[in-house]
From TrEMBL:
Biological source species: Lamprotornis superbus
Catalytic residue positions: 150, 321, 353
A cellular component annotation (GO) from this entry: cytoplasm
Presence of the UniProt keyword Ion transport in the record: no
Protein name: Calpain 5
Protein family membership: Belongs to the peptidase C2 family.
Family matches, as InterPro entries: C2_Calpain, C2_dom, C2_domain_sf, C2_III, Calpain_cysteine_protease, Calpain_domain_III, Calpain_III, Calpain_III_sf
Length: 783
C-alpha cells in the first residue's frame, strides 16, 4: 500500500472561471455496475463482539434535529464542531493564510439578516444556482486544489464510478439538494457517511467553504455550480480534525472509508510484473475481476524509483501522484486490427490524473499512432473513449513497466443471494495495551521479539475444510486526528498465523510444536491484508505492532469459505471454580505432536492401510483424520491436555477403521455417523454407491436384497451387514501403540518410538514406528 506525499499541482490553483460551464460526459460504456450481492461488503457480521448495524453519529450531531432547529429559527446552519476558522484549516499555526469562508449561494440568513458570526467574513456568493450534483456524478467531475490530497481525489474518482456506493456515502441526495422552488427550506446543512473503524459514521457539515479571491482553494468541480466534492472533502477533513491533516495519504484509506472494503497493495517493481509475462497476465485477470465486482484500484510511481516527488517522467507521468483506474478491458480484435497490431487481443487499462491534466505520452496516448489505426466506429465498439481531461489509456504491459505500486480495495461478497463465491465474515475489535505484568501485557511487538511476541492479543479460528482460502485484514485506528499533538503517523503493524493444537482453548505462552504458517506484510499504512490458503485445523492469529509497547486500537476482519468461529483467547489456563474442589483441578499441562508413522502392518490386498492416530490421556482423547492407502502416514497432529493426575500416562494408538478393507460386500470411510458404501449385485455389477447415514444405510441394504439371486440373499446379507453396517459397531483395529509418562523431565526433542500391542511397555512389539514430540510442565501458563 502506498502513502502519497504532499502532492499538488505546481503553480497557481486551477479554477473554473465564471461562464466556463462544461457539459458533463454521458455514462461511460466501460463502467460496469457490480452484480447484485456485491454492494454491501459489511452485510453479515458474526464476531464475538458484533458490530452495530446502526449508523454512529460523529460528535453526536443529529442531522434532522439540527435542520429542524434552523428551519424553526429561520437561520442557516453554522457548525460549532468545525467552525469557519483557521483551526479547521490548519493544525500548525505557521500554516495560516488569508482565507475567506463562503457559502455556495449567499452570505445572509433565510430571514434576510446577515448572520452575526459571518459579519465581515463573507462578501459574496460563489454562484447563482448552486447544486449538490449536476447531471449525476462521474469521475470527471472535479479536480484537486492546493491541498496535497491527490490520494483523496483519486479515491473520489473511483467512488464516482459506482452509483450504489456513492449514494451510500451521500445519503438522500435529492433531500439534501438545493431546491430553487423552495429556497426557505434550505438551511446550509449536509450529511455524509463514512465506514470508520468497523461502523458507518454520519458526519454533519455546514456549507461554508474556504476560498481565495472568490475561488475554492481545495477540491472543486469542473462545473462551477456543483459542490458535492467540496462538501465531501469538508466532511472528511472534519473527521481528520482539519484540512491540513489530509495532506499526504493513501488512496486505499479513503476507499475503505467510502466502502468498508478490504485494502490490498502490490509492489509492481518487486514482483517484476513488467518482465514476467505469465505473472503479468495473472495480475490482469485479478484486477479485471476486482473492477467488475465493484472493487477499486489506484496506482502510483514511488519516490524510491530515483526521482523526486512531483517530478514528471519522460512519458508524462507524475512521481508520487495517485492515479485512479477507471476501466480495464480485454479486447478481441477484428481481422483488420489483428493485421495492424499483430495480436488477437489487447490488454488495456484506463487511468485518470486527479489534476485533470498531464497525461501519458506513450503508446495509445491521445495523439499516438495507435489511435490512427482504429476507426471511430471501431473505437466505439471497443469502448476505447478518449477525452482531453486527464484520462488516458495504456497497454497493461506499459502500465506494469511504468508504475511501481498498486492499491486495491476488494469488495467481499457476504450475501447469501449471489451468483459469485460467498464468504463467511468475522470481525472483532481489539487493542495493543502495555502492562508491566507479562501475563497481562498485550503489546509484545513482532515475531522478532521472541520473548514478548506472545504477549500480544491472540485470536483462535478453525479451518474446517480440507483446504480453505482465507482473507485477513488488520486495521489500526485512524491517527490523523492526533496530528495536532504530533502523533499522527501510522504505526507499523502486521500479524502472524500459527497452526496450533487441534483442541487448544487457552492462550499460547511458548512456541514449541506450533507451526508458523503465514505472515502478513508489515507496513505503516492504516491496514494490512493477507490472502492465504490453509489446511484443515485450528489456528491462532496474532496481530502485532512492529515495535513492542506501542498502544493503539485495531479491528480484525477474517473471511473464510465456511464459518471459522473466530474468538479471542483471554484465559491463560483452565478456570478454577467451586467444582474444582470436588472434581479436582489440573496440575500439569502436556503437549503432544504426532508427526508420522512408518512401517505399519499392511491391511489390505494392495499392501496399504488407512490409519489414524488416537491420543488419550485420563478421560480426554483426540482423533486425527484418516490417512488413506499408506503404511507410512504423515499425521502432523497436535493436541494439548491439562492433567489432574500427574502420573497419568499418555497413550498414542495407531488404528485402522474396521471396515476399511476392500471386498465384494462393501467399504466405508470413517466419518462420524456417515458411511461410504458400495453394493455389488450377484452378476458382479455395481448396484449402488454413495454416502449414507447409519440408519439409512441399514434400510437401503434391506431394500437391495430382493435384487440379489434368491439362493445368494443370505450370503449377501451377511457380507453387507458385517462389512459395512456392523463395522461401525465393532472396535477399530489396533495397529500399535506407544505409552509415555509425559513428565517434565522427559526429552523435549522429537522421538522415534517402537509400536507395541496392548499391555503397555511390556507388550510385544508390532510392525512400525511412530515419531512424536511430547512436552510437559507443572506451570499451566508455560505452554
Amino acid at each position: 500500500m502506498v502513502s502519497y506525499p504532499n502532492t499538488h499541482p505546481p503553480g497557481d490553483v486551477i479554477v473554473v472561471q465564471p461562464g466556463e460551464f462544461q457539459v458533463k460526459k454521458p455514462r461511460d460504456p466501460c463502467l460496469q455496475e457490480p452484480l447484485w450481492g456485491w454492494m454491501c461488503p459489511e452485510q453479515r457480521v458474526t464476531p464475538a463482539r458484533k458490530m452495530s448495524s446502526s449508523v454512529q453519529l460523529f460528535r453526536d450531531q443529529k442531522y434532522h434535529e439540527l435542520k429542524g432547529q434552523c428551519l424553526q429559527q429561520g437561520r442557516l446552519f453554522e457548525d460549532p464542531e468545525f467552525p469557519a476558522s483557521d483551526e479547521s484549516l490548519y493544525y500548525e499555526p505557521a500554516a495560516k493564510g488569508k482565507v475567506e469562508w463562503k457559502r455556495p449561494k449567499d452570505a445572509v440568513s433565510i430571514s434576510g439578516v446577515e448572520s452575526p458570526a459571518m459579519s465581515g467574513l463573507l462578501c459574496q456568493d460563489l454562484c447563482e444556482d448552486p447544486h449538490l450534483l449536476v447531471d449525476g456524478m462521474s469521475s470527471h467531475d472535479f479536480h484537486q486544489g492546493k491541498l496535497g490530497n491527490c490520494w483523496f481525489v483519486a479515491a473520489c474518482s473511483c467512488l464516482a464510478l459506482r452509483k450504489s456506493l456513492w449514494q451510500q456515502v451521500i445519503p438522500d441526495c435529492k433531500e439534501q439538494e438545493w431546491d430553487p422552488k423552495s429556497p426557505r427550506k434550505y438551511t446550509g446543512i449536509f450529511r455524509f457517511r463514512f465506514w470508520r473503524f468497523g461502523q458507518w459514521t454520519e458526519v454533519v457539515v455546514d456549507d461554508l467553504l474556504p476560498t481565495e479571491n472568490g475561488e475554492l482553494i481545495y477540491c472543486h468541480s469542473n462545473v462551477r455550480n456543483e459542490f458535492w466534492s467540496a462538501l465531501l472533502e469538508k466532511a472528511y477533513a472534519k473527521l481528520a480534525g482539519s484540512y491540513q491533516a489530509l495532506d499526504g495519504g493513501c488512496a486505499a484509506e479513503a476507499l475503505v472509508d467510502f466502502t468498508g472494503a478490504l485494502a490490498d497493495s502490490i509492489n509492481l517493481a518487486e514482483g517484476k510484473y513488467g518482465e514476467v509475462i505469465p505473472e503479468q497476465m495473472k495480475l490482469f485477470e485479478d484486477l479485471m475481476k476486482v473492477h467488475k465486482r465493484g472493487g477499486f484500484i489506484s496506482c502510483s510511481i514511488s519516490e524510491s524509483s530515483g526521482r523526486p516527488s512531483e517530478a514528471e517522467t519522460e512519458m508524462g507521468l507524475i512521481v508520487g501522484h495517485a492515479y485512479s483506474v477507471t476501466a480495464i478491458r480485454k479486447l478481441r480484435l477484428g481481422e483488420r486490427l489483428v493485421f495492424s497490431f499483430k495480436a488477437q487481443k489487447l490488454f488495456m487499462i484506463r487511468l485518470r490524473n486527479p489534476w485533470g491534466k498531464k497525461e501519458w505520452h506513450g503508446a495509445w496516448s491521445d495523439s499516438s499512432e495507435e489511435w490512427k489505426k482504429v476507426s471511430d466506429s471501431e473505437r466505439k465498439d471497443l469502448g476505447l473513449t478518449v477525452e482531453n481531461d486527464g484520462e488516458f489509456w495504456m497497454t497493461f504491459e506499459d502500465w506494469c513497466k511504468n508504475f511501481t505500486d498498486v492499491d486495491i480495495c476488494r469488495t467481499v461478497n457476504t450475501s447469501f443471494f449471489s451468483l459469485h463465491k460467498t464468504w463467511e465474515k468475522e470481525m472483532m475489535y481489539g487493542a495493543w495495551a502495555k502492562h508491566p505484568e507479562p501475563l497481562l501485557n498485550r503489546s509484545g511487538g513482532c515475531f522478532d521479539n521472541r520473548e514478548t511476541f506472545l504477549q500480544n492479543p491472540q485470536y483462535l479460528f478453525d479451518v474446517k475444510k480440507a483446504e480453505d482460502k482465507v482473507l485477513v485484514s488488520l486495521q489500526q485506528e485512524d491517527r490523523r486526528k492526533y496530528k495536532k499533538e504530533g502523533k499522527g503517523d501510522n504505526i507499523t503493524i502486521g500479524f502472524e498465523i500459527l497452526k496450533v493444537e487441534d483442541n487448544r482453548r487457552y492462550r499460547l505462552h511458548k512456541l514449541t510444536v506450533q507451526e508458523r504458517v503465514a505472515t502478513s506484510p508489515y507496513s505503516n499504512t492504516r491496514s494490512v491484508f493477507l490472502r492465504s490458503t490453509l489446511q484443515q485445523g485450528r489456528y491462532v492469529l496474532v496481530p502485532t505492532t512492529y515495535t513492542p509497547g506501542v498502544p493503539t486500537k485495531f479491528i480484525l476482519r477474517l473471511y473464510t469459505d465456511v464459518p471459522s468461529k473466530l474468538r479471542e483467547l483471554k484465559a491463560d489456563r483452565p478456570k478454577m471454580t467451586c467444582w474444582s474442589l470436588l472434581c479436582g483441578y489440573p496440575r500439569r499441562v502436556t503437549q503432544i505432536k504426532v508427526h508420522s508413522a512408518e512401517g505399519l502392518q499392511k491391511q489390505d490386498r494392495s499392501g496399504g492401510a488407512d490409519p489414524y492416530v488416537l491420543i488419550k490421556c485420563e478421560n480426554q482423547s483426540w482423533r486425527s483424520r484418516v490417512q488413506h492407502d499408506t503404511t507410512s502416514p504423515v499425521f502432523n497432529t497436535q493436541v494439548i491436555f491439562y492433567k489432574k493426575d500427574m502420573d497419568s500416562p499418555v497413550t498414542i494408538q495407531v488404528r485402522q477403521p474396521q471396515g476399511s478393507c476392500s471386498g465384494q460386500g462393501g467399504q466405508h470411510c470413517s466419518i462420524p455417523g456417515l458411511h461410504w458404501a458400495t453394493f455389488p449385485l450377484s452378476d458382479g455389477t455395481l448396484g449402488s454407491q454413495g454416502m449414507f447415514h447409519s440408519k439409512a444405510l441399514k434400510e437401503f441394504t434391506e431394500f437391495l436384497l430382493p435384487h440379489v439371486v434368491p439362493d445368494e440373499r443370505e450370503t449377501k446379507r451377511s457380507q453387507v451387514l458385517s462389512r459395512v453396517w456392523n463395522s461401525s459397531l465393532l472396535r477399530d483395529q489396533l495397529l500399535g501403540q506407544a505409552v509415555l509418562a509425559a513428565s517434565p523431565g522427559e526429552p523435549r526433542e522429537q522421538q522415534r518410538l517402537r509400536l507395541r500391542g496392548r499391555g503397555g511397555g511390556e507388550a510385544a512389539e508390532v510392525p512400525g514406528h511412530i515419531s512424536v514430540t511430547v512436552l510437559s510442565s507443572d506451570d499451566l501458563a508455560e505452554l
